[in-house]
Write a structure and sequence with these properties.
The protein is mainly alpha-helical. 50% of the residues lie in helices and 9% in strands. The protein has ten helices and eight strands. The strands form four sheets. The chain has a two-stranded antiparallel sheet. The chain has a two-stranded antiparallel ribbon with strand order 3-4. Strand 3 and strand 4 form a beta hairpin. It is globular and about 85 Å long.
Length: 288
C-alpha cells in the first residue's frame, strides 16, 4: 500500500489493483506480437530479393515506393548498431500500446467479454496499461546519465520515448500536473476517455514509422526519429530527474521463509526483506 511515485491519489487504488494484470497484457503483447512480427526487406544475395524489386512496396509513411533495404550480408544489428536494441524494445512496447485497447485482445487474456467499455474491469486494465507506461517513462530518467547525456538501459529509453508520444498526442490526453517548483508533487494526468481518440492514434503513427524504418534499413530516418523522441532537455535533466532519483525506491528483495518445528507444530518463520534477512534465511535453512 505504499503510494506509487508520480501516480495521482485518485488513481492509486485502480493502479494498485490492476498493475499486475496490466503488466501481464503489456508483456504478452510485447514479446509475442511485438518482437514476433515484421518482415525485413532484403537483397538476400546479389540480384535476389525477398520482395518484388520491379514493383517495390509503397511506404505508408510517405506513400512512396521504398528505396532502401538490407544489402547482402547486412543485418538489423550491423545497420542500426548500438541504437538497435533500444529501438527494437521501443517498437515492441509500441505494439503492446497499439493492441491493448482492443477489448477482444483483452478478452484473450481473460479480462472482459470483448465488448468495448472503458469503465469496465477490462477498461480499468487498459487504463493502467497506459498509465503504467507513462509512469515508466518518467522513472526512466533515473537511468539517464547527465554526464554522458545518454540513456543507460534499453527498455527505459524506449519507455521514455513512448511517454513523449503520449505527451505530444494533443487534446490534453497526457500531461504533468504539479504546484511546487521542485516537482515533488508531480503526478501524471492521463485521460482514459481519450485513449482511443488521441493516445492510440499517436502511438500507431509512431509505431508505423519505427516499423517501416526498421523493415527497410532506413537508418537515416530511423535515427532521426529515435534520437529526437528520446532526447532529454534541460527541464527533464535538471528539474524532473533529480526528483525521480529522490523518490526512487530500492529494488524489492524476495526472501525465502523457512518452516521450523516447535514441539508438534510446524511454524512458518519469515525474515525482513533486506540483505541481512536473506543471509539469515539461508543460514538458518542450512542449520535446520
Amino acid at each position: 500500500k505504499e503510494p506509487v511515485p508520480f501516480i495521482a491519489a485518485s488513481d492509486q487504488d485502480v493502479y494498485d489493483k490492476y498493475k499486475d494484470e496490466a503488466f501481464e497484457v503489456q508483456v504478452g503483447l510485447h514479446e509475442l506480437l511485438g518482437h514476433g512480427c515484421g518482415k525485413m526487406l532484403q537483397e538476400t544475395s546479389p540480384g535476389k530479393y525477398n520482395f518484388d524489386i520491379s514493383n517495390p512496396p509503397i511506404s505508408p509513411v510517405d506513400n512512396k515506393p521504398v528505396s532502401t533495404w538490407y544489402k547482402p550480408g547486412e543485418t538489423w544489428g550491423t545497420v542500426f548498431g548500438g541504437m538497435g536494441p533500444s529501438y527494437e524494445e521501443c517498437r515492441a512496447e509500441s505494439v503492446a500500446m497499439s493492441l491493448c485497447p482492443d477489448f477482444e485482445i483483452l478478452k484473450i487474456f481473460g479480462y472482459g467479454d470483448g465488448k468495448a467499455d472503458i469503465h469496465s474491469e477490462a477498461g480499468d486494465i487498459l487504463y493502467v496499461c497506459y498509465l503504467q507506461m507513462a509512469r515508466a517513462g518518467v522513472a526512466a530518467l533515473q537511468f539517464w546519465d547527465p554526464a554522458s547525456r545518454r540513456h543507460g538501459q534499453a527498455h527505459m529509453q524506449a519507455r521514455f520515448a513512448i511517454l513523449q508520444v503520449f505527451l505530444r498526442a494533443g487534446g490534453d490526453f497526457c500531461k504533468f500536473e504539479y504546484t511546487k517548483d521542485d516537482l515533488s508533487d508531480l503526478t501524471i494526468a492521463l485521460d482514459r476517455s481519450k485513449i482511443e481518440s488521441h493516445g492510440r492514434p499517436a502511438i500507431n503513427k509512431f509505431l508505423q514509422q519505427l516499423h517501416v524504418f526498421k523493415a527497410t534499413a532506413d537508418l537515416k530516418r530511423g535515427k532521426a526519429l529515435y534520437e529526437d523522441i528520446t532526447s532529454v532537455d534541460e527541464w527533464y535533466a535538471t528539474k524532473l530527474r533529480p526528483e525521480v532519483v529522490r523518490q526512487a525506491k530500492p529494488r524489492k528483495v524476495f526472501v525465502q521463509a523457512n518452516t521450523v518445528l516447535e514441539g508438534d507444530d510446524v511454524v512458518l518463520k519469515e525474515y525482513e526483506p533486506t540483505p541481512e534477512g536473506m543471509i539469515q534465511s539461508f543460514a538458518e535453512r542450512e542449520y535446520i
